[in-house]
Amino acid sequence: MRRFAEIEDLSGFVGEALGAGCRVVAVDRLRGGSKKGVYRVRVEGARVASVIVYRWAETENFWSGVEAADSADPFAPASGLVPFLAAQRTLDGLGARVPEVLLADAGRDRRPADVAVVEDVGGGTLEALFGTDPARAAAALGELAEMLETMHQHRSPRYGRVDLPERDAAGGGTSCEARVLGRAVRDLEEAADRHDGIAEAAGALRDRLRELAARVTPRAEYGMIHGELGPDHVLVDGSGHPVLIDIEGLMYFDVEWEHVFLRLRFGERYAALSRPGLDPRRLDLYMLAMRLSLVAGPLRLLDGDFPDRASMRGIAEHNATEALALLPQS
Hints:
Number of helices: 10
Helix content: 40-55%
Number of domains: 2
Oligomer: single chain
CATH superfamily of the largest domain: Aminoglycoside phosphotransferase (APH), C-terminal lobe
Strand order of the largest sheet: 1-2-3-5-4
CATH class of the largest domain: Alpha Beta
Order of helices and strands: HEEEHEEHHEEHHHEEEEHHH
């Protein structure tokens, strides 16, 4: 039985962040997280009415049965206080809006979790705003496009997550396209074990991945990307500005990887985020790889006790259909 945090688990951290006169009156665990617990903590006697607490603990991580990969791999699980703080500092330094950190506690030697207390932006997600206030959402989307362009133009001669220097790890090595190909082949194998349609087409999908990868020419410079940016990972603050969350996977990589994900998650609204100059060959490879990842990942999550099972199954089925549609038609 998983145990999530309650008032007594979070009151000390929140009191330290907001001052001794603060009293915690309610704690709500927010939906959607699979690697960390996200809690809205309501308080009295402080300068704010609520804060958000991120809690990285084994009991919060629905991927805990997944074998950890090399931390230098940009696709290794991105979770914990170190990658969060490195990403927060990096984005803030670029002028990208992220929640303010009020307290960070790397307390695993004393307590079962790392914790960060951050600003409660409170305006809801961009995804929700599209339904309630389309004009305000469109303005935030335009500002998000400018923010992403700044990030993507921030270059590095090596790829990898921005927290690598703090882990004494080096990025780079094999090319981005080779990394993507290797991951996609592993995702294909996992998906074929769990999905009949993918299993039947596994040979054709593997051949297509290798064919697309062979078309990609080398590159020696990489942009900064969020890595998993959908409209649910963008909040909109009281002034209408977009705020990036779930930033632990921030890395330097081919920006085409980001644009493929943006296209999938923003749909018809992606036009506001698109940009000229993207490599169409990378886009083709990365789209098929992303589809296979979005089959294997959700099905892998369903091996455990993730609660929103129908949603994960729906994501896997949709992306399986889309992956198969990317095969050449005979």
